[in-house]
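ZP: hey, is the D-xylitol-5-phosphate complex queued? I don't see it on the tracker
AM: it wasn't, my bad. submitting now with these inputs:
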Amino acid sequence: MSFDRKIKIAPSILSADFANFGAECEAIEAQGADWVHVDVMDGHFVPNITFGPSTCAAIRPHIKGVMDVHLMIAPVDPYIEAFAKAGADVITAHVEAGAHTHRTLQAIRDAGAKAGLALNPGTPAGEVEYLLDMVDLICVMAVNPGFGGQKFIRSQVEKVKQLRRMIGNRPIHIEIDGGVDPTTAPLVADAGADVLVAGSAVFKGGSVTNPAPYGDNIRAIRAAAEGVYA
Ligand code: DX5
Ligand code: ZN
């Protein structure tokens, strides 16, 4: 996985057909997705349950590019190795998920994955200040995690700006997750985010048998983020 700050669109399979993950991953990549975002929820850290490492391992062969695994689980440490073995390229844990975030990030890197750290909307940017040497990606949640299709929380744009300043020249991605669509994408791209997660805004109107809308949706988000209004 090489580092750059170009805009990357990462569709969240939370909005995909759960009975067809393999085909859905292939469809979004064929339609221009840069990364595939995989939302793992435990019904404890967040009020929803999705799936675990075995599902990640099952979909891995259907993803050519980056598998970006967002763990909304607590505790997180006991499961890191399983998600790394499942083939995650990036493993993102929440700073709110436990008391020993530094140890968690170390464990992710030791397992051979890139280390991501997610911040809930109420968590200040400063939480990551002493962790910057340990992270490869910071995920700013623009919704309260748990469900797709929620409204973008605008205050998070300022948080992205603060993080962008804090990061300086370090090779750290800023990912924005929740409520990203062609109207919100330019705000976060201008603020400094380079990985744009989008669930409902990518999958709307399409299906595995009719994947062309996925491509239209991905292009619309990318064009908006890059400042080119189609
Ligand atoms: C939120 C998840 C997201 C989210 C994205 O709990 O982490 O990845 O579902 O979905 P949209 O783009 O529909 O807000
Ligand atoms: Zn997510």
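AM: back. The radius of gyration is 16 Å.
ZP: great, adding it to the tracker
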